[in-house]
Amino acid sequence: MGIVVFSYASETKESRQEFEFQKGLTVEKDGYSNARVLNDDFFDCTMSATVTLTVGVAKLEVSCSASGATCEQALATAEGCVTAVVKRIITAIK
Amino acid sequence: MKYHIFFAIPVMAALALPTQTQGQAEADVNYACVFNIQFDRQQFPVPYHARLLHAGAVSYFDAVRDKTFALPANDGLSMEPDTLLQVSKYFEADEMVFAAVSFSGKEVLYRDTLHSMIWTMTDEKKNIDSLECFQAKTRFRGRNYIAWYAPSIPLPNGPWKLGGLPGLIIEAYEENRDLYFLARSVQFRPTDIPVRYKGAVSRYPGFPEYVTYLKTTLEKIEGAMSAQEDGNCIDCQTRSKVKLHLWEKVLD
User: I want to staple B110 with a disulfide (CB 3.0 to 4.6 A). Which of A7, A80, B165, B210 is the partner?
Assistant: First the structure.
């Protein structure tokens, strides 16, 4: 769909989200760092993908988080999840 | 007879404003508007050009996005009409009609009570250009608003759904400035209200129906989410959630 974007931390509102990554991997978007290493041990990576549907002035925010052995795997799963959820929602509210 | 007030002009001489009432006055008010399209989450203020047309006992307001302003590249799917915050007010019927976008992308008009917010007048006053303005505050559908109105322009109207004060609202904003209006010009002249908003107000569904529509839709969405969880959660490691952000917090 080409619309899956990272959620990222915001210092201005309550929607702060934190992500877990393998050691040393950081992701930055729009000047925000949304990654932090929680500990030094290897662990599953958890990633989140969010899609926003704008309906007039209303916003429907759909997000999925997924875990995987690698961050790439987790992100792919999260993106697949959010795409599936959006499709289900669109079908449900037609 | 035309009267023009352009706030870009720094010094205004004494204004010969008409002593008209809401029943007779015709005015064309241009507002600069800024709307944080990512309200309640992040900051992404977007400029709009807004206009209030007041013609006797009827008025029409809408806001058009400044097309020179680039929206965020990854803002997801958008079903945004050309104009936002459309509101028609019918002073004799004490009602207004506003435009909402359904989740299928259709524009639907609903009725609402005219100026149902309860204002608290404060002692604050300031000049906006040459107009002496007084402050009033209100809480309306989950948000706090501050308005500055000019008693010297005796129109109890204002941008969007705001109004009901003893003077035209010159400046108004939500307390976090996620929605902001500032009048840039006021012209007293004959105005044409869009034809589609003429006629009986009663033909439109009421505000309770709008709230019911939102609730029903949200239930459908949550149902779809449950189905997603049921189908995937045994062998997957995903968690999904959905949140509906409404400007008027009618579901809280």
Answer: B210
